[in-house]
Specification:
Chain lengths: 526, 526
């Protein structure tokens, strides 16, 4: 049995005053209900409204329970290439700081222990009061964190007050969306409405598609790649090295052979390398993950060129399966003029998109659409297990379809189009402001992800919740990110850089290898 | 490429007046907010309170949008052994009805289409009113469905009003629960509090466990079995044939060899057959799924006997991995005197339990606990992908930990103990009432699942949302199921049986092969 001490590296230079929510027994704290919303609905309005009401717009300092040890960016954490020992990371200015984390330890210092109620708690109401106090403080910290968030592609601006009346129900769409179970408390009629909308967006007829609402982007990728594998059991998985980590996780879980394909500096798949890798395995069918927006650089793989490369290498349409990972841009691209179209009129097998990203949703979710003929093949293969089991998960969150249905109905195509235009415009604004401030930055066409040098100060990174990888960080401009917020961010970054680089006496790092010479503004390249 | 028409069988004898929510444009419907709760909190109280307020307790008829085509039970749907054609199912009294469903078709007739807003919708407010009307009707149908639900192991009695203030936030615990990402809007401090509680329940020290809150029982099984496979890459998976379908799905997804083991009449694993199957593969390590409550019969596999069988067949502790699927009873058993203990003091590798079942939660979720040493092995294996990627999903619902934390704190061990006792008592009551009414029924010791003959009338099955498999149906007695509700159910069943079996002139079916001769009350066995 392998027993291996697993250590990953991270900066940990503070003695970490982690969030504290002391649950003092018998403390006489009473629950302060949230302030009423301006709109007068039962469930108060959007985050912005709440912020205004709490006068939090002017609050500058981090809340006391903000965790100062959050350092590792999530979408693509650094690989632990030295898995047993402690690794030092060289920072700018030659300073080296030790990084160490033992998996499964560090959050314990901050966790909110579950405690056994006292016998008289029901009488005194003390426990209710304590819990209300914890929740009120937690809510305040969420407001602060939501306000400063820039790094992850989540639209934090939503108002689902009208749906709060449904929170009492255990809504479960267990199994297939198109076949009802005997469990009556479900939301399939909403789920299928949402799926129809997406199938239409990606140009697949109602009677030719199958799909479901997933728990997250990863589930969409796991499903798409599994369908590909069931269609081609001996297929080889091809994915660019900047694909989401769930793609490689799928390869390992499913015991598939996988070829990592190089990327261009933009982050797009390098189709020359793809061609060469395909040539190595001409005898085996190809299963390809195409990124409609990579995690870090927001790069969109050229779907048409991928298909052309396959055809030119001798792969006929019955010998490949393309899964499009459209986590974020899968929903933005259709609203961008001139963007290459993701469409089932092309020889693709499945498309997935996240619901909590551009749409915005309290909990992660996603949409997975595939061809009915493929899911029939999948179901055929698993039928000896349980005939209709075509989803990855069994019980499925019935609230997520309601959130998506509600937003799609309220905004419609036109609403999304406006929001996409706003995001792209604001992303261009951010890139421009960074460049004019001497910060090298890259913004791919069709993308709202602005990539730039990683800030030297981890506290700054944490405050703005930037996602980082190696020497770069990014901001994903979502509908809730305003020009004002971007200005605040750039102004603070400029101030901080003056300190980090001692008003230009020290060199800022070169990021040409990450974002290209044309975008880099280091001493060598500006 | 396999293109296969996938057909499963089902009774479909009505021309199916499916739920209709016509979204009439410009209809002058105004939003009726839910009535205020007695408790005066912003988010009204429990389902029962709402039912009283709506005077729905006395409503007998099904809501007009109740779907009369829901026929197939979900936990273990019948296998489609004739996957291309239409199969007839022989019902009692010699009547035969055709069954047919084409996957991906039938819900479309009832779905709530997403429609594009008109330009003037914002001005007129018509769209908001239409949507509010749809939601109000949907809420009413959920109340009705919740009231009559008996068949699935979901505790529908919860009041999370205090948490409604958090619904505005996009809470995401992406990645590992113990390592924070830079995304600040998370609930890891609550998640780890919940995990600690479960680790203590199953007797594993804080510094020796790893775990996370999953999306459902299936994710727990997928994770437990994946950990087992990573620890023993060439291990054989053993699971009783009454295991949840996700176990066999895992085997297929992970390309593992799988041995199905026979069961006793109770539904427990047959350890004599297990011994024989183990003897066939003595050269390979064993990965065993142990059911702490099977889906259909609520049978608890004898963990101690499974371990003894392994030991006696020559499998030392470093050559097997046991995953305990405790979907429902994993949380009930610890509170039952004399029940065999699920404990990490025994040589087990992981335990999973569902959160939306006994605890009760608006959306499906689960808890997965494993040994830190195993997850280290797993992470070691996948580290070249993304160092800390040890969960199946990537983005993870941050609301589920809040719901679980809240309930655990409010109820505590003592609260759960009381509820478990009540459920077991009420299950015995139900079994007794069925038997005295001439309905053969089985109730396993340690279980609150009462198994009995499948009702002959699908409308009755749908009304009470019974889960069925073959000739049997079951009721899972959960905390929200009262004696009154059970009485109503039995009284109606007795009335209906008088009609189905023409006051005893026709024979009721023999279910001895499903529930044992001792429990069957057919003409032969009573």
């Amino acid at each position: 049995m392998m027993v291996h001490k697993w250590v990953i590296t991270r900066i940990s230079d503070s003695s970490s005053s982690l969030p504290q929510y002391p649950i003092t027994k018998k403390a006489a704290i009473h629950f302060a209900p949230p302030p009423p919303s301006k709109k007068g609905s039962k469930m108060a309005g959007s985050i912005d409204v709440m912020l205004r009401e709490l006068n939090l717009e002017t609050v500058e300092s981090l809340p006391e329970d903000f965790d100062p040890t959050t350092v590792i960016s999530d979408p693509l954490p650094a690989v632990a290439d030295d898995c047993c020992g402690v690794k030092g990371e060289k920072l700018v200015n030659g300073k080296e700081k030790p990084r160490e984390i033992v998996l499964g330890r560090n959050v314990h210092t901050s966790c909110l222990e579950v405690t056994e109620p006292d016998d008289d708690d029901e009488v005194t109401g003390d426990r209710e009061a304590q819990m209300a106090s914890v929740l009120a403080r937690y809510r305040k910290s969420l407001l602060e964190r939501t306000k400063h968030h820039l790094g992850y592609p989540y639209n934090l601006d939503f108002d689902y007050g009208a749906l709060s009346q449904l929170q009492h129900f255990s809504i479960n769409n267990l199994g297939d969306p198109f076949i009802e179970s005997n469990y009556g408390v479900h939301s399939r009629q909403f789920e299928v409405g949402v799926l129809d909308w997406f199938a239409r967006l990606w140009e697949l007829e109602k009677n030719e598609y199958w799909g479901y609402i997933t728990n997250c982007g990863t589930e969409g990728n796991l499903h798409g790649i599994l369908v590909g594998r069931e269609v081609f059991p001996d297929g080889i998985l091809y994915a660019s090295c900047e694909s989401h980590y769930s793609v490689f996780k799928a390869a390992r879980m499913y015991r598939m052979d996988c070829e990592k394909v190089n990327t261009l500096i933009s982050g797009e798949i390098d189709c020359e390398d793809f061609r060469a890798k395909l040539a190595l395995h001409k005898d085996k069918p190809a299963i390809i993950n195409v990124n409609i927006g990579t995690t870090v650089k927001g790069a969109v793989d050229d779907l048409d060129l991928v298909i052309k490369t396959l055809e030119e290498t001798g792969f006929t349409h019955d010998r490949f399966y393309i899964h499009c990972d459209g986590a974020l841009f899968g929903l933005m691209m259709p609203f961008v003029k001139l963007a290459p179209k993701v469409s089932f009129k092309k020889p693709i097998g499945s498309v997935s998109v996240s619901g909590h990203k551009f749409v915005g949703c309290p909990m992660p979710c996603g949409v997975q659409i595939t061809r009915l003929q493929h899911i029939n093949a999948l179901s055929r293969n698993v039928e000896y297990l349980a005939s209709r089991d075509a989803t990855i998960m069994g019980s499925r969150n019935g609230h997520a379809p309601l959130f998506l249905w509600y937003t799609l109905n309220r905004k419609g195509y036109r609403g999304f189009q406006k929001e996409v235009q706003k995001c792209l415009r604001n992303a261009h604004y951010l890139r421009g402001r960074l460049a004019s401030s001497g910060v090298g930055a890259m913004l791919n066409e069709l993308s709202s992800t602005v990539v730039f040098e990683r800030p030297q100060d981890e506290e700054f990174t944490r405050k703005w919740q930037l996602a980082c990888q190696g020497n770069i960080a990014h901001v994903v401009v979502m509908p809730n990110i305003t020009i004002d917020k971007l200005d605040d961010f750039v102004n603070e970054l400029v101030e901080k850089r003056a300190i980090w680089y001692e008003n230009g006496r020290l060199k800022s790092p070169c990021v040409a290898s990450e974002i290209g010479e044309a975008n880099c503004l280091c001493v060598l390249h500006k």
